[in-house]
């Protein structure tokens, strides 16, 4: 798998996790919400960094 495909796959997974957490926020247990939200925030932030990096590197 090429580098661009790996970045795209990671972006799709991270945005999907964030979307699922937003849609199912009422059904998640209270002790699981915060760690999953932090993980989703880190993954989405890293996705944006990778997207900007791929634009500048020409991938």
Automatic annotation (TrEMBL):
Q: Where are the transmembrane segments?
A: 6-23, 35-56
Q: What keywords appear on the UniProt entry? A: Membrane, Transmembrane, Transmembrane helix
- The molecule here is called Signal transduction histidine kinase
- Which organism is this entry from? Paenibacillus ehimensis
